[in-house]
Amino acid sequence: MARTLVISPNWIGDAVMAQPLLRVLKDQHPQRPIDVLAPKWVAPVWRAMREVDTVLEAPFRHGALQLRERREYARMLKQRGYADAYVLPNTLKFALIPWLAGIPKRVGYKGEMRYGLLNVMHHDNRDAQRPMVSFYAALADMPRADVPAPSALPRPALYVSDERMQEVVSRAGLRVDRPLVLFAPGAEFGTAKRWPAAHFAQLAMRIMQDRPQVQIALMGSGKDKEVCDEILAQAPGLFNLAGVTALDEAVALIARADAMVSNDSGLLHIASALNRPIVAIYGPTDPLHAPPFSDVAESLYLTLECAPCKQRECPLGHHRCMREITPEMVWQPVSRMMQKD
Questions:
Q1: Which residues contact 178 (CB under 8 A, 6 or more apart)?
Q2: What is the annotated signal peptide range for this record (predicted)?
Q3: Do 257 and 273 touch, CB atoms closer than 8 A?
Q4: CA-to-CA distance for 205 and 212, rounded, in angstroms?
Q5: Residue 24 contacts residue 153 (beta carbons within 8 Å)
Q6: CATH 3.40.50.2000 occupies which residues in the chain?
Q7: What is the Cα–Cα distance from 66 to 29, expressed in whole angstroms?
Q8: What is the 3-state secondary structure (H, E, C) of 113-174?
Q9: CA 271 → CA 107, 119, 313, 315, distances in Å?
Q10: I need a labelling partner for 116 at 20 to 30 A (CA). Which of 25, 193, 270, 301 fits?
Q11: Which tens digits make up the pLDDT trace of 6-58?
C-alpha cells in the first residue's frame, strides 16, 4: 500500500499547528498511512496524533548537512513505498531526503532554493503572512494565492488516554482528585516572549489565596528550570516540573489541566490541541498568527505601537508588551475558568 511521508518542523508549536494538514490528507486518501519524520525532541507530539501511523525519529544532527547519512536514510525510506512527501521545514537539507528516496510527489514551500528537489512548489506571501495552520494546510492542495482561513480547517487535536493522564499525574506527585493549574513561563524563541517571573509568582499567590485546593505546577524543559526556580522562590508551594518531565509526560499532564497560563510557546499549542482552558500571553508576537483554538481560551495582547516586533529580546529595552500585562489581568480569566470546580 502506498504511504505518505510528512517531514516535521523543528519546533513543537509548529508541529502541533501542522496537524490540520494531516486531517486534510486523511480526508483525501483515507486508506493511505501517514508517516512522520521528526526530530527526537518533537516526536512525542506526533505520537499523540491519531492520523499518524508511524513516527520515524530523524537521526541527523541539528543544522548539519550530513549528505552521506541522508542518502543512506533515503535508501531506507525508498523501501517503505511512499507516493508523496510533504516537506514542512524550509531548508534545503530536508528537501533532499524525499528527492534522494525517489518519492514521486514532493511538496513544500520554495524556502532555501529547492527547485528540482520539490516538484509541487508553494510560495508564501511575506507581505501578508498566513496563520500557521493555514500555512501548512495549504500544502494539501495545488499552489494558489489564497489559502483556507483557520475557521475553515479542522482544529489541531492531540489525544491522551485517561489511564495515561492519571499515571503521569500520580508519578509527578500531584493529586488526581484536586484541580490543577499549569504555568508555562518559558519560551524557546527568546526572553522577549516571557511574561515576568514576578508576575507569575503574584498570580500563583492570588490563586492559592482564593482557591487553596488548587495545585499549581510549573512546566518547561531543563532550559526553563532557572525561571521556574525564580517563580518558586517568590511563591513557595508550587510544583516545579521543569526539566523533570519528558515531553510525552508533559503532554499527559497538560491533558489533565483545569487551566493553563502560558507564554506563546510550544506548550501553549499543545494545550490548545488538547482543548484545555488557556490564558495565552502575547507580547512580541502576533496572536492572530498562532492563536489558541481551545473552546475556552483568552489571549492577552496590548497592541503597543512597537508590537509585534518579533524579536528574541526587546529592541527598546523596556519590555512593556509583557510587563504591562498585570497579574490581575491574567487572574480575571483564570478565575472564570476555575469557577466550574
A1: 213, 214, 215
A2: none
A3: no
A4: 10
A5: yes
A6: 3-150, 164-338
A7: 33
A8: CCECCECEEECCCCCCCCCHHHHHHHHHCCCCCCCCCHHHCCCCCCCCCHHHHHHHHHHCCC
A9: 29, 35, 25, 30
A10: 25
A11: 999 999 999 999 999 999 999 999 999 999 999 999 999 999 999 999 999 99
Please give the backbone phi and psi of residue 91, each rounded to the nearest 5 degrees, phi first.
Answer: -90, 160
Query: 3-class SS at 48?
Result: coil
Cα-based distances in Å from 168 to 82, 176, 204, 247, 253: 36, 10, 22, 11, 7
Q: Name all contacts of 126-133 with Cβ < 8 Å and 24+ positions apart.
A: 129/289, 131/288, 131/289, 131/290, 131/291, 132/13, 132/14, 132/17, 132/289, 132/290, 133/17, 133/20, 133/293
What mean pLDDT value characterizes the chain? 93
Query: Domain 164-338 classified CATH 3.40.50.2000?
Result: yes
Angle between the N-to-C axes of helices 247-256 and 266-273, in degrees from 0 to 180, rounded to the nearest 10: 50
Residues in the chain: 341
Which residues in the chain show pLDDT less than 50?
A: none
Can you tell me the distance from the alpha carbon of 12 to that of 41, in angstroms, rounded to the nearest whole number?
8
Which residue in 188, 230, 187, 237 sits closest to 212, CA to CA? Answer: 237
Q: In the block, which residue shows the cell 505546577?
A: 217
SS3 242: coil
Closest CA to 108 of 134, 127, 85: 85
Residue located via cell numbers 486518501 = 29
Query: Cell 528516496 identifies what position?
Result: 101
Q: What is the largest CA-CA distance in the chain?
A: 61
**Which CATH number among 3.40.50.11740, 3.40.50.720, 3.40.50.2000, 3.20.20.190 corresponds to the domain 3-150?**
3.40.50.2000
